[in-house]
């Protein structure tokens, strides 16, 4: 099946064409210039930018795949979680194409896309634990098989990527700040400052692998205000902050993997592009006998190829969604049904 996939959950407009698990095209139109002056994503502006970009982005994806809409046999689009206005642009576009061409349509959970993104280039056997860390999500899932996911831990407040962006702003950097903090941290001493690492207790029967990043954001903000007033002091702050966040991510991810006796840990989402996280989690995994797999950088951030892979698998398994499917801002991957 040749599938057209659309991803518009936040501030990137993306389209891809997938055929038999192979990525024929993968186009991402960024909105960084739109939101940069505000220091973060403005939902209304994101929705409007998606409306402008969606048609040319799809056309570029079709052109790169040497295909037309007449060649497409199924359509998939992100239906949640994400910004409602942004989601609706991609979802409505996908449903319109499906209706006009009389081809099947399926809505895809954005988190399932990230969880499967590692499969785009490497066949990873189930079961495995997945650390999904991005600007909007930080979660740990035990993937027993396609469509069978158990939540092991999640953030109780802010996402790791959001913490990177906020600290970047405190340090005088532009949005998006994750990559900039990573670059600045490479010039600093990660042991210069001891920022807090949240260690949360078990809650409501869940294993103790939840995250919290609000405290470290506040600690960094106060430290910069009171001490790191000179630009040359901020590399140490960036390095120390990054080390603390990486400590929390690595500790919980390795612990969760060991708790369910899984042989493999997958790290996905935009934060998985962080160089220090990649280095530390690969080293720790090797020490603990866990096979750690991280997707290529182009599949770490939001993209439509990962949505297309999930859509192709669900469509081929016979799943179909009606054209009345709505977008949802909150969608727990644990409750995604198997096809």
Gist?
The protein has 339 residues and is an alpha/beta fold. The chain has helices at 32-35, 43-64, 84-101, 110-116, 160-170, 178-185, 214-226, 234-259, 275-288, 304-316; strands at 2-7, 12-19, 22-30, 74-80, 105-109, 128-133, 138-145, 148-154, 264-268, 291-293.
Description of the molecule:
The chain has 10 helices and 10 strands. By secondary structure, it is of the alpha/beta class. It has 2 domains: 2-114 and 302-335, Nucleotidyltransferase, domain 5 (2-Layer Sandwich); 123-294, Nucleotidyltransferase, domain 5. Strands 3-2-1-4-5 form a 5-stranded mixed sheet, sandwiched between helices. The chain has a 5-stranded mixed sheet with strand order 8-7-6-9-10, sandwiched between helices. Helix 5 runs antiparallel to helix 8 and helix 7 runs antiparallel to helix 8 (234-259). The longest helix is centred in the last third of the chain and has 26 residues, at 234-259.
